[in-house]
Amino acid sequence: MAAPSERRGYRRAEIRWPIVILTNRGTIVGETRNVGVDGAFLFCSQPLQKREKFRLFIMAPDRRALEIPVEVVWSNPHGSEEDMPPRGMGVHFERISDEDRDFISNLVSDHLKESSFD
Question: Once rounded to an integer, what is the mean pLDDT over residues 35-54?
Answer without folding.
Answer: 94
